Amino acid sequence: MVVAKQKKKATNGAAASAKPEKKIAVQKKVIAKKVDAIVPVAPKKVVKVVKKKQQAETPKKTKKAAKPNDEEDEEEELPEDLKDFKKAASAGKLFDSDDDMGDEEEDDDEIGIKEGPLGSDDEDDEDDIDMDDDFGSDEDEDDDEGEDSEEDEEGLPIEKKTKKLDKKMAKIAAEGEEELQLNITGADRFELPTVEEVEEEIQTAPNLTSMKQRIQDVIQVLGDFKNRRQEGKSRSDYIEVLTKDLCSYYGYNEYLMNKFQQIFPAGAELLEFLEANDQPRPVTIRTNTLKTRRGELAKSLINRGMNVDPAAKWTKVGLVVYDTQVPVGATPEYLAGHYMIQGLCSLLPVMALAPQPGERVLDMAAAPGGKTSHVAALMKNSGVLFANDPSKERCTAVIGNLHRLGVNCSIVSSLDGREYAKIMPQGFDRILLDAPCSGTGVIWKDQSVKTSRDSQDVQKRHTLQRELILSAIDALDANSPTGGYLVYSTCSVLVEENEAVVNYALQKRHCKLVPTGLDIGVEGFTKFREYRFHPTLSLTRRYYPHVHNIDGFFVAKIKKMSNTKNPKPEQAGDKKEGETDETDDKKKKQKKEKKNGKKGEKTKKNGGEAMEVDGEEGGEKKDDDSTTASKQRSLKKKKNADKNQRKGEVAREDDGFNTKGEVRYEPKQKFKHKKVNRRLLARTSAKAMKKKRRKVMTKGYSGATTSD
Amino acid sequence: MRPLTEEEQQSVFGKLAKYIGDNVTHLIERADGDYVFRLHKERVYYCSENLLKMAACISRDLLLSFGTCLGKFTKSRKFLLHITALDYIAPYAKCRIWLKPNAEQQFLYGNNVLKSGVLRMSEGADRAEGVVVYSSTDTPLGFGVTAKGTSDTKRSDPTALVLLHQADLGEYLRKEETLT
């Protein structure tokens, strides 16, 4: 009977919900029939009502969400009902008056209606709108419970109920899966918006979540482009949209984003890298082995209240600080010089350098002194350590740190790094060059790098790096018994500043790459886009924040083979095809001749560049030994002009990979006085104007004009 | 960079002797090589001779520091000993004083030490004697000058001033620019 009535209500739907009186009457009847078993169910239904009311307020989009919610509620509901039922059954009473009271009160609180069943009726009606089945199931539940309560039996009816519930749950699960399938197939084809649309969206109303979603979609499409692409859209369209989205989501400028896309072609890795750039790396410290040992230091720091642990298995001096109650840079141990705060990546170049006690070592860019003091610690305060930094202000930090850490064997200077090749040529056993770079590996420390780097910036830096690495190699002593090593490192991931500079050094000087001796790290690029580097570049090491959890870094170890400035012929990678022994002979002959002495050396240095000219020259020279002095001068002038022009062209093309590139020499602009036309001068010069004015004035006085 | 003159030597060694007494000879004549004192830009540096020869290659205004800086000469030619000299003074110190943990922090901030902060003190110290300050864990913290002799300190009340601060490790943070 109850079933029939409730079904009628279902059909009426909205109409029924508008008549509270009728409801109350009905519910009273329902209460009469169902004794107390309703109670365990009611609170659940109350919750459902509230939820549904909230859903009704939210936009239509959530209608789909509503359905799963319903299903979830239902699933939650049923087992709990069962639990309650089982509990009650086990306790020996199906009906607990106290519980009822409590639940009814709950109902009151939540809906503001006094009787529990009222809530259930509302729910039933709303159920009708969404899913008839659920309504039916509720009905069944109520009926079952009602029947059970009436019959007051245990065992079999409960078993029946469990079976029904199981079936119900299975049905709901199946429906859920079906829906999921529908959803997936529905969103199969990702619709790519045009670049203009994307730009507009970014400028007017950037929506981060939709951007993120679009980024992931595009990356997914690019992952299997053939099958997942949209008709009519090319790969570059997708990549453009991706670039724009990434730039605005993470806050980069387009130049940097393009560079990163070239280094990380796979979209997923690029995302990881960008995410890692926004998160800080853990705080790490290095124990100063001149004053203490790692174990002792760890003990005393833990006593102070810092939580430290050995940082990595490849280092014996590194400690990572998880959390601390005291400031890391102000403990008495820090002041006593027992440790130095530095990133783990800073340990790597010094480990690669491996300075021996008693050697002469130079650190060309020493500030703030972390790596320098590490070198001194490895040398055990013997030998000589030059710590150089071009900026005097930052040198005070170096001096302070060296004194604090107890280093006596150091000399601190503030020269330009390029000067060391001139004051102490071939004077060092080992050199550490931690070159100034664009800082793309430590973006988390300085977010401004994201927007302030562009091609001019990077070009300036890699030009400086090339000069520095060459002067560093010149300052090395190739014949030293224990050394002749240069370690070049940067905190950048860009290829122009790393592999390209090392490649340039290999071509310009007689040196070779040796294994760094570091266990961790990714091998450096031997080929990048259309550029090809020397194959030994695979001995260099790269580090990424998303792979190793240290700053982006690059380390290369170079050994100087001989003290001559010229690269060995086999080393020079840019020999022209036509070069044969003949030209070499020609070179030698030219060398002998006085006037071509300098030119000969230059040709050797510049590789194939000036070869042609010298070839011509050589030819001419051979033919006509007795050219007049003036002729020789004019020939020289021409040759120099050609060379300068070619230099200019080359320098302009310098994109970091053109390793032939020379430093551009811009001659001072001579100020030429322009010769003005005499007649024009007469008309417009100040003198002439003065004369004219005087004439007019005198005329005006003498000859009365009618202009008054 | 030049060697010290007679007067300068007097003042430097006199100051050092205040803290380490006759052990100054240990600094001047060492078994493991010749160590020298040099004056460069009003600061006194202590280093070995080979280091000195290397440092001579660099021009005067670009050379900033070599070896260890012991201290500097003021405008009125008095010699001030810096905290950077602690590594050489601490092993040869004549009088030492150990501080309690609470007083350590105070001393590292640059304050003087009261009797309540003193853990123990070496015997036979007079008034106005150079003392090296140690923490309870036996790490040198700095140096100072006694306000009273050891016997007087024993008798005085807990709030009496015992040690006048001269230099402490905290200066590495506070006075980083002026240390050099």
TrEMBL record, chain A:
<dbReference type="Pfam" id="PF01189">
    <property type="entry name" value="Methyltr_RsmB-F"/>
</dbReference>
<dbReference type="GO" id="GO:0070475">
    <property type="term" value="P:rRNA base methylation"/>
</dbReference>
<feature type="compositionally biased region" description="Basic residues">
    <location>
        <begin position="688"/>
        <end position="697"/>
    </location>
</feature>
<feature type="compositionally biased region" description="Basic and acidic residues">
    <location>
        <begin position="641"/>
        <end position="669"/>
    </location>
</feature>
<feature type="domain" description="SAM-dependent MTase RsmB/NOP-type">
    <location>
        <begin position="273"/>
        <end position="561"/>
    </location>
</feature>
<dbReference type="InterPro" id="IPR049560">
    <property type="entry name" value="MeTrfase_RsmB-F_NOP2_cat"/>
</dbReference>
<dbReference type="InterPro" id="IPR029063">
    <property type="entry name" value="SAM-dependent_MTases_sf"/>
</dbReference>
<feature type="compositionally biased region" description="Acidic residues">
    <location>
        <begin position="120"/>
        <end position="156"/>
    </location>
</feature>
<keyword id="KW-0489">Methyltransferase</keyword>
<feature type="binding site">
    <location>
        <position position="416"/>
    </location>
    <ligand>
        <name>S-adenosyl-L-methionine</name>
    </ligand>
</feature>
<dbReference type="InterPro" id="IPR011023">
    <property type="entry name" value="Nop2p"/>
</dbReference>
<dbReference type="InterPro" id="IPR054728">
    <property type="entry name" value="RsmB-like_ferredoxin"/>
</dbReference>
<feature type="compositionally biased region" description="Acidic residues">
    <location>
        <begin position="97"/>
        <end position="110"/>
    </location>
</feature>
<feature type="binding site">
    <location>
        <position position="434"/>
    </location>
    <ligand>
        <name>S-adenosyl-L-methionine</name>
    </ligand>
</feature>
<keyword id="KW-0694">RNA-binding</keyword>
<feature type="region of interest" description="Disordered">
    <location>
        <begin position="1"/>
        <end position="23"/>
    </location>
</feature>
<feature type="region of interest" description="Disordered">
    <location>
        <begin position="47"/>
        <end position="162"/>
    </location>
</feature>
<dbReference type="InterPro" id="IPR001678">
    <property type="entry name" value="MeTrfase_RsmB-F_NOP2_dom"/>
</dbReference>
<feature type="region of interest" description="Disordered">
    <location>
        <begin position="562"/>
        <end position="708"/>
    </location>
</feature>
<feature type="compositionally biased region" description="Basic and acidic residues">
    <location>
        <begin position="567"/>
        <end position="578"/>
    </location>
</feature>
<dbReference type="InterPro" id="IPR023267">
    <property type="entry name" value="RCMT"/>
</dbReference>
<feature type="compositionally biased region" description="Basic residues">
    <location>
        <begin position="588"/>
        <end position="597"/>
    </location>
</feature>
Automatic annotation (TrEMBL), chain B:
<comment type="subunit">
    <text>Interacts with pre-ribosome complex.</text>
</comment>
<dbReference type="Pfam" id="PF03657">
    <property type="entry name" value="UPF0113"/>
</dbReference>
<dbReference type="GO" id="GO:0003723">
    <property type="term" value="F:RNA binding"/>
</dbReference>
<dbReference type="InterPro" id="IPR055359">
    <property type="entry name" value="Nip7_N_euk"/>
</dbReference>
<keyword id="KW-0694">RNA-binding</keyword>
<dbReference type="InterPro" id="IPR016686">
    <property type="entry name" value="Ribosomal_synth_fac_NIP7"/>
</dbReference>
<dbReference type="GO" id="GO:0042255">
    <property type="term" value="P:ribosome assembly"/>
</dbReference>
<keyword id="KW-0690">Ribosome biogenesis</keyword>
<dbReference type="InterPro" id="IPR040598">
    <property type="entry name" value="NIP7_N"/>
</dbReference>
<dbReference type="InterPro" id="IPR036974">
    <property type="entry name" value="PUA_sf"/>
</dbReference>
<protein>
    <recommendedName>
        <fullName>60S ribosome subunit biogenesis protein NIP7 homolog</fullName>
    </recommendedName>
</protein>
<keyword id="KW-0539">Nucleus</keyword>
<dbReference type="Pfam" id="PF17833">
    <property type="entry name" value="pre-PUA_NIP7"/>
</dbReference>
<feature type="domain" description="PUA">
    <location>
        <begin position="95"/>
        <end position="170"/>
    </location>
</feature>
<comment type="similarity">
    <text>Belongs to the NIP7 family.</text>
</comment>
<comment type="function">
    <text>Required for proper 34S pre-rRNA processing and 60S ribosome subunit assembly.</text>
</comment>
<dbReference type="InterPro" id="IPR015947">
    <property type="entry name" value="PUA-like_sf"/>
</dbReference>
<dbReference type="InterPro" id="IPR005155">
    <property type="entry name" value="UPF0113_PUA"/>
</dbReference>
<dbReference type="InterPro" id="IPR002478">
    <property type="entry name" value="PUA"/>
</dbReference>
<dbReference type="GO" id="GO:0005730">
    <property type="term" value="C:nucleolus"/>
</dbReference>
